[in-house]
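Reopening this one. Same input as before:
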Amino acid sequence: MPWTNRSYPPSMKNLPKKVREKAVEIANALLDETRMDEGIIIATAISRAKDWAANRGIDTRSTSSDSRSTDVKQHGTDRYVIPYKQDSWAVKTEGSKKVEKVFKKKEEAVKLGRKKAQSSNASLTVQTKKGKVQSRTSYNPNKRARKSP
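Same output, byte for byte:
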């Protein structure tokens, strides 16, 4: 059943108008082109419409006060806690050659790395003294990375 901008799936009701219109357009195209289950079509259309909006700087957050969406389309810069010179620890930003800050205690480095990763919906990877991965945690509200023992 094709949808319109006045008659659309209930799961699209809290989307901003432009995003909902794009989701309806995508859902109708998927209905015409594929034999996918209707539920999959709706979820795919919403996701693609949010990506479309995010790539154009359009806000994808719901305007409804009762919406519980935690969908975050932006992933921040990952942080690493690494062993550093002479029994120190450093917080390093992904892709950077320089460290962000150096600490005497590993716990202090982990605390800062966690704070930075959480504030940017990124991941924190903590290494052992020998440079192996001790743990990895994702702070994206939609995905949790597996924690290594």
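So the earlier flakiness isn't reproducible anymore. For the record, Residues 144-149 have pLDDT under 50 and may be disordered.
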